[in-house]
Amino acid sequence: MRLTGLSSGLDIDQMMKDLMRAERMPVNKLEKQKTELGWKMDGFREVNLKMRSLHSSMFDTIMRSSNMLKRSVVSSNQAVISATASSTVGNTSFTINKVSQMATSATARGASLGNEVNEKTKLSDVGQLSDSTNIQTGWVTGSMQRENIAVTDGVAKLQEKPTLADGANQLLINGKAYEIATEQGALSAGQVFIGDEGELTFYESDNIPARLQIEYIKEDESSTDRFTMSTVATTKNEQGDVTSSSFFFKDSDTIEAVTTKMRNATAGVNVFFDEHHKALVVTRKETGTYSSESNLKDIQFDGALFQTVFGLNDDNVQNGNNAKFTINGVETERRSNTFTVSGMTITLKDVSEQAITLGATTDVDAIYDTISSFVKEYNDLVDLMNGKLNERYYRDFEPLTDEERDAMSESEAKRWDEQAQSGMLRNDSLVQSSLNRVRQGLYQSVDSGTSITHLTQLGISTTRDYADGGKLVINEDQLRAAIEEDADAVFAFFNGTGGQPGMAQTMRSNLQQGMSSLSRKAGGSEGFHEQHQYAIGQQTKSIDDRIEAFERRLEQKESRYWRQFTAMERAMQMANQQSESLFNLLYNN
């Protein structure tokens, strides 16, 4: 029990606060040291992140041939032919003497479905379907079943052997139709046998993926839903191989739902409903012709819905055309209007009898922009590091304790924190050595195997203003001239050649050394994540341990003080009681 001044009349609570405030001064000092260490760690990590950003961007910019050897192509008639060039094309040119035919896609337009039909019309309301019997149009009555199963050790198994609806003799497996065989031993390509336990057996040459989505129409006497299956396929090569996609359609599906399913399928077709002709139009996504035989169509349809109802069949499929042109006097053709010749990607836009030249030259603007972006990012790093090294340190502004912060307004505390955090890395030897190491790499001579051995030969040098701290400045005319004269030599200077490191490789190595040093100091990267793994973390842990020990001692001292004050109060209470008793004996007789 604590007696707080009842006998003595003293403000013991305030006295205890004052005593413990004095006792806590060493703890406050340690907490301020810990706060400063946290600020220093944040500063080191900020520098480290900036160095890492430059380290990564150099690899993706000035060290990539696709950027530093970039070529641009000038066409004598951009409206007819345009082109781009890879970094390996060199300064070459081609002449397209003539474009006699553009590449087109295979197209099929179905039969008119009637004036009342639109995209929102249900299949059951299309005239040819509403009056037809199930068997004639491929409709079967039942319910749709879907299962997703995995193939384990070459075996795929349904939950149970399905009871298929009358007229349904096919499964859809990952969008491909498989005919259900009656005997396991006589399978052919595109057939599947279903065992008594639901296990699936495929033709041995069929390529079966690891996961299967299986759809089928199950017998269901309570269902009135009707389903039909149709297939669209595109020819892959002159041998007649196809990529096919099959679908189950429900009689309540709209024409819009049919076109959406077809567009999303692997067969590779675009589909839309033509409001003018009231018909489906199917176009192959790829241009060109794939069928060498006149009777083989680039788009093929199967199923009563596609063939009978929509009128999509071989009679109305128009095969695609290859692009035909003459290049450097040689007649040739391609399946696409965009093709590549010796590293130059050419796009035909229209037929033409006019000879059009395509000349690939060094893309000076793109290469200049790549180098100038590197210089800007380097200067940003120098700005940050010099700013940290030269930032003013306010010795009289220490981190605030909670009690000190509560005594200030929010704006006062913010201004105090700004000054207290300033200069944490002022003249820091680790940051300074990292900066010096990176800067030294810029001034070293590079054995690139070309005439360019120093950065100044590219018109890049340090500014004359000492206050800039070694930032780079570009002489634009000189850099552009160097790129125009020999872009390969410029790239070799940055990236090295013949096993000799270039300037960029040397700088990245120096950056890596600096980042590793900063990580060992402040953690946060390169595996230094736990507190005990980096220097500041170890210092922080040591301070935490000391604070914990101090806190235990403070608790003990506080308890001792309270015992002493309590004893004093009890003694004074006894004295007061004795005094009162003596007074009563002397004056109340």
TrEMBL record:
Keywords: Bacterial flagellum, Cell projection, Cilium, Coiled coil, Flagellum, Secreted. Residues 8-105 form the Flagellar hook-associated protein 2 N-terminal domain. Its main location: secreted. It is found in: Secreted; Bacterial flagellum. Signal peptide: none annotated. PANTHER family: FLAGELLAR CAP/ASSEMBLY PROTEIN FLID, FLAGELLAR HOOK-ASSOCIATED PROTEIN 2. Homopentamer. This is Flagellar hook-associated protein 2. The lineage of its organism: Bacteria, Bacillati, Bacillota, Bacilli, Bacillales.
